[in-house]
Write a structure and sequence with these properties.
The chain is 85% helix and 0% strand. The chain has one domain.
């Protein structure tokens, strides 16, 4: 079980890095402007977007390994860790302002992950 949880955490970390990379890349792409098609073409060539997509691909591989070993009813709620990680990383790395209500929601997610992990 410990091995599966480590694989889950690696997958979650890859997902968090993927989200941050996608956001960083799309900030650059959005500054270019244009319609949806030119934006998607710029996104396909943006290194941060490519890294983000790659992180998601590797994250999916870890996810497949995890669900082959753990009950889905345990593993899936544990992905809430990624929501928590993205909020903290967005605040710290991207400098996003997080409202008190968003912090409260993040704490509720923390409590939910804790309860599921204890079951």
């Amino acid at each position: 079980m410990l091995k599966s949880l480590v694989l889950l955490l690696i997958g979650v970390l890859l997902g968090i890095v993927g989200q941050l990379s996608l956001k960083s890349g799309m900030k650059v792409v959005a500054s270019v402007g244009g319609g949806a098609v030119p934006m998607l073409m710029h996104a396909a060539l943006n290194l941060n977007v490519i890294i983000g997509i790659a992180c998601y691909g590797f994250s999916m591989i870890f996810w497949l390994l995890v669900i082959s070993k753990l009950d889905l009813s345990l593993a899936y709620p544990m992905l809430g860790i990624s929501y928590i990680g993205v909020v903290f990383a967005s605040w710290w790395w991207l400098g996003e302002a997080i409202s008190p209500m968003r912090w409260a929601g993040t704490l509720v997610i923390c409590l939910g992950v804790y309860l599921v992990a204890r079951s």
